[in-house]
């Protein structure tokens, strides 16, 4: 990075007013330190106001890992932090940050309190679609009746009847899945503080490639409830035709407030 | 089951580029994501399924929002004295669906 004006790269907000030097653990081995205000602080490194950008995947990967490393390190030392997105850079020096911390202090403290002793976990539920379809269709009396009826029909009539049959199966599948969603949701909810349905999700490991992802959640979970959540997920994971992927803990990326419309 | 903190770079990427604290400050010169990072890297964050196709998400989303609204209404009520904090909770409830939509829109 060269040129530009003086800036500060932001990693996270911590629940401590300590003035600390955390060492050269930042992006490109930058020296990471805290800018305190009252009993909170921003964890930053000093940089120029050029965003980190690259087309070199390896380099981007190192940056991302370094960003996360600082957040993990701060979380271990100070408890749950408010993590910033990658490449959040403020124009100005320590004083600019102090001003901002001063103005936003109450909100930031409120947010720190909200996530205190909690962490983010990701829950993904997969199913073997065909298995589920067969099972739901097999337990539906109307569908069983239609199937028997169809099997006795002449070929042409059966062909026409096929579409009606398929619609029935689809309806039964939708109803069955809605029921399962309620059941699974009920099992999980009691163990999480907050929960968000992720409509898009990252790629999943090879292990789950032959299964369909039916729901992906980000959950904010209290430290003392993680085990119970794991047990609840175990129950789902044990069900024939289902698999659960449970990852974390992460800093509460999905649950930090003060979000504004991105321009 | 125990949560895995496997070295899942893509999952990390998803969080670091698309989530996290964003400031509403004039001093901000950049935020994560487009177009600041290599295009090939962005492509790694792919939607793998149209979950809507399976209907589960809709059902879940609806019941989750109902539950969430109820839970958070209590929180908001309790914290009315602290207007800022209460506001955050209320916004979270109202913004539940919006947040999901926004998450898609910004990609």
SSE map:
The complex is a heterodimer of chains A (263) and B (107).
Chain A: E1 6-14, E2 21-23, E3 32-37, E4 40-48, H1 57-78, E5 82-83, E6 89-91, H2 94-115, E7 118-127, H3 129-138, H4 141-152, H5 155-189, E8 194-197, E9 212-222, H6 226-238, E10 242-250
Antiparallel strand pairs in A: 1-4, 1-5, 1-6, 2-3, 3-4, 7-9, 7-10, 8-9
Helix pairs in contact in A: 3-5, 4-5
Chain B: H1 9-18, E1 28-30, H2 39-43, H3 56-78, H4 83-105
Provide a descriptive summary of the structure in words.
The complex is a heterodimer of chains A (263) and B (107). With 263 residues, chain A is α+β, with helices and mostly antiparallel strands. Chain A has six helices and ten strands; from the N terminus they run E-E-E-E-H-E-E-H-E-H-H-H-E-E-H-E. The radius of gyration of chain A is 25 Å and the shape is elongated. The two termini of chain A are 24 Å apart. In chain A, 40% of the residues are buried. Residues 259-263 of chain A have low confidence and may be disordered. Chain B has 107 residues and is an all-alpha fold. The longest helix of chain B is centred in the middle third of the chain and has 23 residues, at 56-78. Chain B is globular and about 45 Å long. Chain B starts with 8 loop residues before the first helix and ends with a helix. The model of chain B is unreliable at 24-57 and 75-107 (pLDDT under 50). Classes of the chains: A alpha+beta (263), B mainly alpha (107). Chains A and B meet through strand 1, helix 1, strand 5, strand 6 and helix 2 of A and helix 1, strand 1, helix 2, helix 3 and helix 4 of B.
Quick structural gist:
With 263 residues, chain A is an alpha+beta fold.
Structural class of chain B: mainly alpha
- Greatest chain-chain contact: A-B, 90 and 71 residues
Low-confidence stretches of chain A: 259-263
- Estimate percent helicity of chain B: 55-70%
């Amino acid at each position: 990075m060269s040129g530009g004006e003086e800036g500060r790269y932001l990693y996270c907000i911590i629940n401590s007013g300590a003035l600390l030097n955390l060492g050269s653990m930042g992006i490109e081995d930058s020296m990471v330190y805290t800018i305190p205000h009252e009993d909170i602080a921003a964890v930053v490194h000093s940089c120029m106001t050029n965003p980190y950008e690259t087309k070199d995947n390896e380099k981007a990967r190192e940056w991302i890992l370094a960003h996360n490393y600082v957040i993990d390190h701060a979380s271990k030392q100070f408890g749950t932090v408010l993590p910033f997105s990658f490449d959040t850079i403020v124009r100005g020096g320590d004083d600019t940050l102090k001003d901002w911390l001063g103005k936003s202090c109450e909100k930031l403290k409120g947010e720190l309190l909200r996530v205190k002793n909690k962490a983010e976990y990701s829950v993904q539920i997969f199913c073997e679609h065909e298995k589920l379809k067969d099972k739901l269709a097999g337990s539906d009396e109307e569908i069983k009746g239609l199937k028997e009826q169809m099997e006795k029909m002449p070929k042409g009539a059966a062909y026409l009847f096929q579409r009606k049959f398929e619609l029935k199966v689809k309806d039964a599948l939708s109803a069955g899945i809605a029921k399962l969603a309620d059941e699974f949701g009920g099992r999980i909810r009691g163990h999480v503080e907050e929960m968000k349905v992720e409509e898009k999700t990252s790629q999943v490991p090879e292990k789950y490639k032959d299964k369909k992802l039916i729901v992906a959640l980000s959950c904010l979970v209290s430290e003392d409830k993680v085990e119970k959540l794991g047990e609840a997920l175990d129950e789902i994971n044990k069900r024939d035709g289902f698999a659960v992927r449970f990852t974390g803990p992460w800093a509460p990326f999905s649950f930090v407030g003060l979000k504004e419309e991105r321009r | 089951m125990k949560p895995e903190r496997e070295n899942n770079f893509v999952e990390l990427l998803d969080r670091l580029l698309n989530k996290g604290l964003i400031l509403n400050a004039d001093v901000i010169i950049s935020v994560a994501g487009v177009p600041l990072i290599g295009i090939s890297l962005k492509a790694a964050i792919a939607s793998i399924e149209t979950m809507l196709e399976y209907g589960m998400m809709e059902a879940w989303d609806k019941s989750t929002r109902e539950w969430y609204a109820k839970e958070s209404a209590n929180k908001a009520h309790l914290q009315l004295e602290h207007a800022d904090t209460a506001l955050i909770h209320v916004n979270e409830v109202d913004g539940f669906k919006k947040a999901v939509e926004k998450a898609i829109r910004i990609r």
